[in-house]
Design goal:
Helices cover 44% and strands 18% of the residues. It is α/β, with parallel strands linked by helices. The protein has one domain: Vaccinia Virus protein VP39 (Rossmann fold). α3 crosses α4 and α7 runs antiparallel to α8. Bound molecules: S-adenosylmethionine. The site of S-adenosylmethionine has 19 residues, from α2 and α4.
């Protein structure tokens, strides 16, 4: 009943910014590094990373969609559709769009007849969202939803931005009901040497220039560097299996330029 009440509330009143009862980001203390933008000389960890990621997405939010579409040649749209196809949610499912950003997955989920709820750390990204789905400001490592309360979740291009992947997978395992499905999409560096050299030139040299010209140089310099946060595919699958998704699978898409993790909650 409690879960139903929360979702009715979110659905009926179309609350766009439901500030989660979770601390959005810790206030800086003497031991926390305060960062206004993404450092260019190192990859931050822990609180410094959370804060830098949040501030970076707040900064780039107004032009995020434009730069994204140019950078991916609109292929991101098809990849989200592929993610939903692989996730294969039951009709009229309640599905979380985790790290929803400007809400592209929410739009696809609603087109597919599902009830979408977006969650993101950055108010800037949520404010730039183009979806009518309810949006929640919160951290993926402390999801503001009761145990087993949703039928599924998708996550687009955010795994490498999280402070801790196992804690996120634990949260997924907690909020998704048994039998519920997940689809987690992110970029990837291809295995093929030929594609990898094309990838390196494009992401290390071209993308930062496009980002600097249209948006924020530090943010689009971070993008290719952030891939090194991700563990290899076997390790991510093993982590998911340990958290109650024993059928977890990894797929490479576009010759390895993208990767998709999918699984069912035991
Ligand atoms: C590259 S954007 C992707 C947005 C969207 N999913 C898409 O497919 O375009 C990554 C998003 O992850 C969000 N994010 C990063 N860390 C997060 C966290 N710990 N909790 C919630 N959202 C987070 C950022 O604010 C940003 O909106």
């Amino acid at each position: 009943m409690e879960n139903r009440f929360i979702f009715e509330l979110l659905g009926d009143f179309r609350i766009r910014f439901f500030h989660a009862a979770v601390p959005p980001a810790r206030k800086p203390t003497a031991t926390v590094h305060v960062v206004d933008s993404m450092p260019t000389d190192h990859l931050p960890e822990g609180d410094q990373k959370r804060q830098a990621v949040r501030s970076m997405f707040d900064t780039i939010a107004p032009r995020y969609d434009l730069v994204n579409r140019i950078m991916t040649f609109r292929m991101d749209v098809g990849l989200r559709r592929k993610t939903m196809k692989v996730a294969d949610f039951e009709p009229s499912s309640t599905v979380l769009d985790l790290a929803a950003g400007t809400g592209d997955f929410c739009i696809e989920l609603e087109k597919g007849g599902h009830r979408a709820i977006g969650v993101d750390l950055s108010y800037g990204m949520l404010a730039a969202a183009r979806t009518g789905a309810p949006l929640v400001q919160g951290d993926l490592l402390a999801l503001p939803f009761p145990d087993g309360s949703v039928d599924g979740a998708v996550c687009g291009y955010a795994l490498r931005n999280l402070v801790e992947l196992p804690a996120f997978f634990d949260e997924l395992g907690r909020v998704i009901r048994p039998g519920g499905r997940i689809g987690l999409l992110d970029v990837s560096r291809p295995d093929s040497r030929l594609l990898r050299s094309g990838y390196d030139i494009y992401f290390n040299r071209v993308v930062p220039k496009i980002g600097a010209a249209l948006s924020d140089a530090a943010a689009y310099d971070y993008l290719p560097r952030s891939l090194s946060y991700l563990p290899d595919r076997e390790e991510m699958v093993a982590m998911l299996r340990r958290t109650g998704f024993t059928d977890a699978e990894h797929r490479q898409l576009q010759g390895g330029l993208s990767q998709l993790l999918s699984a069912t909650k035991d």
